[in-house]
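Quick start: read one record
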Amino acid sequence: MRNTILKALAFILCMAVLAVAEYFALRAEKQQSELVLYGNVDVRLVDIGFRIPGQVSQLFFEEGDAVKTGQLLALLDKTPYDAQLREAEANVKAVEATLNNAKILLNRRKDLIGVGGVSQEDVDNGQANYDQLYANWLYAKNAMQVQQDNLSYTAVCAPTDGVILTRVREPGTVVNPSDPVYTLSVASPVWIRAFAEEPDLGKISYGMKAEIYTDTKGSPVYQGYVGFISPMAEFTPKTVETTELRTDLVYRLRIYAENPDWRLKQGMPVTVKLKLHD
């Protein structure tokens, strides 16, 4: 009876040892099939401003609002630019009337020179006057186009899909060209800034698939791929956690991530798993 019990205990012990060995073997195999990196989310930011000076009349969005490409964001007071455009249009009409009259006189002199009614000098002067007025007409047309463009620049639209990160100005503010009125967080592309140690660099290639995990419980696994590998080594930034000493030289990576729910935010710490077998 005692021998039976000992044999059973020995069998159980052997099975436990085998199970532990298999666990560590599978764990080692899994570690070899993926490379774990740590990094932070990077999102492109765009400062939205007007191309011309003026007084802000309307701002249509608040911080946190999602916007689409081409959506109207803000307006300047159009009054001065509308008046300048009307002035330019009137100038074009005035120059055009003078130009048409000069053309009639030139054609008349060309008809009279054949019968000796005018001299060649009169024809040449008429041609020179017409050419000068034609140049003035072109200048006036271009000036009118500039005023038309300026009038259109009183409206600013979203250059891409994104979220309003900061509303910098308020209606009534007088702004200069390029003064930001909004800061826009671009929806795409979103990438992860991570760092790889030199021994692992040979395992990483462009286009390698990646899984991205956040610290939020129940958060989905985001998909991505390696889009940039720095050709230069650098010291590990203090904001990046690695399993080795911070003084080790590392290479910066950029992993482009899909962000369908817009939950990946600027600076968010994430864990990246690169699929080495792929």
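The helical segments are 2-33, 79-113, 120-152.
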